[in-house]
From TrEMBL:
Keyword Hydrolase: yes
Keyword Ion transport applies: no
Organism placement in taxonomy: Bacteria, Pseudomonadati, Pseudomonadota, Alphaproteobacteria, Rhodobacterales
Key words, A-Z: Cobalt, Hydrolase, Metal-binding, Zinc
Essential cofactor(s): Co(2+); Zn(2+)
Official protein name in the record: Succinyl-diaminopimelate desuccinylase
Organism listed in the record: Pseudooceanicola marinus
Coiled coil: none
Top-level EC class as recorded in UniProt: hydrolase
EC number(s) per entry: 3.5.1.18
Family: Belongs to the peptidase M20A family.
Domain of life: Bacteria
All residue ranges annotated as the Peptidase M20 dimerisation domain in the record: 199-323
SUPFAM superfamilies per UniProt: Bacterial exopeptidase dimerisation domain, Zn-dependent exopeptidases
Amino acid sequence: MTEPQVKMRLHEAILARRDELIALTQDLIRIPTLNPPGENYREICDYLDRRLRGKGFETQLVRAEGAVGDSDKYPRWNIVARKEGARSGECVHFNSHIDVVDVGRGWTTDPFGGELKDGKIYGRGACDMKGGLAASIIAAEAFIDVCPDFSGAIEISGTADEESGGFGGVAYLAEKGFYAKVDHVIIPEPLNKDRICLGHRGVWWAEIETHGEIAHGSMPFLGDCAVRHMGAVLHEMEESLFPALAQKRTEMPVVPEGAKQSTLNINSLHGGQAEIPRDVNALPSPCVPDSARMVIDRRFLIEESIDEVIGEMKTVLDKVKGERPNFSYEMREMMRVLPTMTEREAPVVQSVTRAIQDTMGTAPQYVVSPGTYDQKHIDRIGRLKNCIAYGPGILDLAHKPDEYVGVDDMLQSAEVMALSLADLLTG
């Protein structure tokens, strides 16, 4: 076939699978893979296993034993499927995470119903990123039917725990060498169908604890309130750290606009006794808190070093320590991920660029994600730079109530992915 004939046949093959794409997305949404704690990972992997084996893929189910989060109650299961071509060549790998975040409040549809309404499929994970997973499967299947004599191999993976760092998913697979023979990676995260995401900002999570001395709440002068010490830390952060971060700007094409600066989120804050469960009819005892703990989520830019990021927080704490009697603290790192950004000249970027132009008649926008995703592990552990995020869905809908993915967006994204396969594996 000529190149125009291949493009036309792929277009027709994708459109012919519209109902199948809808049903596949609904099926995936209806498996509630909530993380935490990590529910139904095996169930969704078994579903994907049946689906992909039925289409001629060889599959492996891999449990990330010993990884962060893995337990006998909540095992971290992953699936990797591979379809060999008619002859040797490069490997294109589509990676999607199977976990979804907590439902939260404010839904007007069933979060796990997969309702189709006005061309949109609703549910937790519809946008982030079961719609992208379904689109990549449909794209691969359509391409295989149209171009059965392709070169190389196609891989599709469904991996655990991206929403909590990906250590039981892509990180584990990368450590075990699963990306050693992969040449191109497309991660169908919801960055909008006409965008190519080149990478992400860095992240540093830490827990800060301030110390005090317990005493009777009626005589707080006999103790030392750790919460007040933490209040002093918060005050200094407001006075010096937050204004300093707002002045830092990046040349990375980060979206949305507010993420082009360094940011810090106070993820949680707790002091004193553990909270009494809502279903327990009791009152707390009167005690001065001897511990307060704060978890911070610091997002940083490619222009910043991790040592600079940590040093800024330590400067805040040491300033408070120098000004406040009896102040002591501990700072414990929970996670660090360095920023990453694929070059625009990378083969997978160029291929997806051409596919977007062919499908939508417009040049793509190149962006960087405000938050991290599993590209971090493919880059740092898998040693593969030729990786992007591209998929259907609107980024702003991720983790929101009434999350949805548009059917037409999935179809167009699937066509882009199929054209990219044709470009990379039939040349």
